[in-house]
Amino acid sequence: MLKKPSDQTESKDLQLVRTIAKESRAETLARLHASSNGLSTKQAKKNREEYGSNKIASNKHDSKLRFLAEAFITPFTLVLLVLATLSLCTDYLFVPAGQKDLSTVIIMLTMVIISGITSFVQNVKSSNAVNSLLKMVSVTTDIIRDGKDQEIATDKVVVGDVIRLAAGDMVPADMRLLSSKDLFCSSSSLNGESSPVEKMATKKPGIGQDRDYLDYPNILYEGTTIVSGAGLGVVFATGSHTMFGKLAHDIARNDVKNTTFDVGIKNISKLLITMTAIIAPLVFIINGLTKGNWVDALIFAIATAVGLTPEMLPVIVTTNLVKGSVEMSKHGTIVKKMNSIQNFGSADVLCTDKTGTLTQDKVVLERHYDLNLRETSKILELGYLNSYYQTGMKNLIDKAIIEAAGDELDVNEIQRDYNKIDEIPFDFSRRRMSVVVENSDREHGEHLLVTKGAAEEMLAVSTKVEVDGQILPLTPERRQKVLAKINDMNDDGLRVIMLGYKRNPAPVGEFSAKDESDLILCGFLAFLDPPKESAKNALAKLARDGITVKILTGDNEAVTRTVGLQVGLNVDNVYSGSDLDGKSPEELAKMVEECNIFVKLSPEDKTKIINLLKQNGHTVGYMGDGINDAPAMKAADVSISVDTAVDIAKESADIILLHKDLNVLEKGVRIGRKVFGNTMKYIKITLSSNFGNILSILVASSFLPFLPMLPLQLLILDLLYGTSCLSLPFDTMSDSYLKQPRTWSTKKLPKFMFYFGPTSSVFDIVTFGLLYFLICPHLVGGAYNAISPAQKVAFVALFHTGWFIESLWTQEMVIHALRDRHLPFIKQHATYAVILATFGAGIIGTLLPFSFAAGALKFGPMPLDYMWVILGILILYILLTTVVKHFYLKQEKFLI
User: Fold this and answer.
1) Is 353 tagged catalytic?
2) pTM score, two decimals?
């Protein structure tokens, strides 16, 4: 909710709002040098230069300076800088001239630069990719430009533009209403109020209403939504000068859902902080006590703490998301909110309307019957008057009526004979809409109210019927006959709406929904929206992928049941919105599980069903394209819309389909699961690997008379492994993995770590024994306690080199061992990118002791024969990991 500024801090923008709200329409147009006929393209360009563009300036997004800061200010780089500073003191500043050595400092700073630049470049690429994808989806508005209505992108709106608004539109800028008709606006994005309020062009703020500027009746603010009715307004503020831009940078259009993945990452952070708080001090104390050098022990403990942290996680998550979103865009799926991809892949229930999703979205007017089921041009003419003259949101039904009338009637003559007087816009509670027209020729100016709507809602406000030219009372018997005929048509898969009329209703200018009474029912309009040929196959694929599809529609049971049967849905249970009323929470929880088709639903009913499914433990996706879908989309874990949807649906959506097709959705779900799986690979494998290293360090620190590895060597090991993990977003997931929805949870992460971390520690300890008791004594010429100080230096260097190579190769191989449940390299293998990265990192690490950097890194000359030992250890390690996987999967359903 926005806070209203005090009088002392009132801005010029707010003063302008107050002034415009109190002045007349003519005064506002004069102030803005505008006209009710709109601007010319030339004048619009001048106004853009004078007042600025319709973009909200924000320093929170995609600044390269911000990316640079985030890339270099990380725990990893900060620790490296601390260690570099300590090394500068111990190796250069406070040592004799002949012993000064800057090589360690230089290497650490090089690592900082490599790590920072990698992260910076990746973040910039990610940002550019997201921006380019979002450009594929645009929200437009109906602007009167150059004397005609044009659909123009909202960011092209300028001060002085005159804009038409209808149900479903997002208000693109701050506007003063010039005219309005039953215009209701939802301002929840600004003031938190869920109920829409009526806006009237002719009404000004009342006395004492100055401070309640958000409630001014003749002002519309950017970011609010037209719920019903129609209006015409002139723009007086754009971009950062709007109330939305001034006070609400971080709400409405940029809301980011806190997904289960976000929660999981936070839980991992808590786990790591706890582990670090326990293990780092323990490593420090053990090494301080056993080695006697507390400074070295401190540096080593800090390096160990870094080893616990999956420092590449932000880069890998971002890379994964961007790669997934780019891949999804190739299949017609645009990701608006990147963090929703995990929920998209985790969804096990998809709720959707049937129109356009299961059906062809090409509604055709099949029949225009009178009440005796005879086709008559009068019914089509009345339907045309209603659909053609309404100024609200023209849906597929209106378009079908207009198209059919254009083929069968002389619509030019109808337009000459009838002039529009007024209208009563559609809303989702009445489920009707009316227009009032004047017959200028035949009936000498008679006013005629023509209403169309859902059958039950029309019957509720009708008292008479027209049969064979006679006006008769609507008796219960006639009512039953009407319903029976509708049911017959519904059983044929036809959607039926009814037409009614009333002559000479209320005086001009006073029409309202109350006038929809005492109507004369006169006929039926029956529409066909046949199922898509691909729908049945797409539903089968979604079922194969573990996704239950539930139809949530405002349509009636008969039509929905017919369509459901044609596309292979289970239609044994069908509930309506009224069936949900008065039920206990337990009954409702059972109803939403056992039923896949819900009919005659209001927007509130849809939201209620989604919340019930979420309470039952499901990850719910909702696919919608209308204004009545917006509340349900906000309630769902992941919301999906289409590029042809109304503005509010596109704004509410996390993911937008360029084609309204469940096959496109199914492909997107599998890509989402792939993204999720590759992210989980890094998290699970890295945490278990690091945990194993920490266990090894604790064991080695307790028994060795020297540090098991130097801090710098430990950090280079961490950097090489982390860099190789950057290839994981380019890995694949098995088909069996993609067939099941995976819900993110950190509860089983400790179990995974405790199973596979100690597995690597077993071979680390074997390596310690081989190096300490056999290999190093053989190469140096004696056991550690029996050799000279110079030989001890060589012994320690060889030990560090041996464990560095073994630890690096086991970390790289664990990626291949744990990426899939099967035996690596034989029954499963990674992509070439992962193979190249992991083996490349292992080879680079192996060559370091033989390179020019060996001295600076304090590595010893390990003979090449040692690589046979490493090969044997790796084979045994992979075999043992495979055995452990077998026992782990006996208790757990999934590995990754």
Assistant:
1) yes
2) 0.73
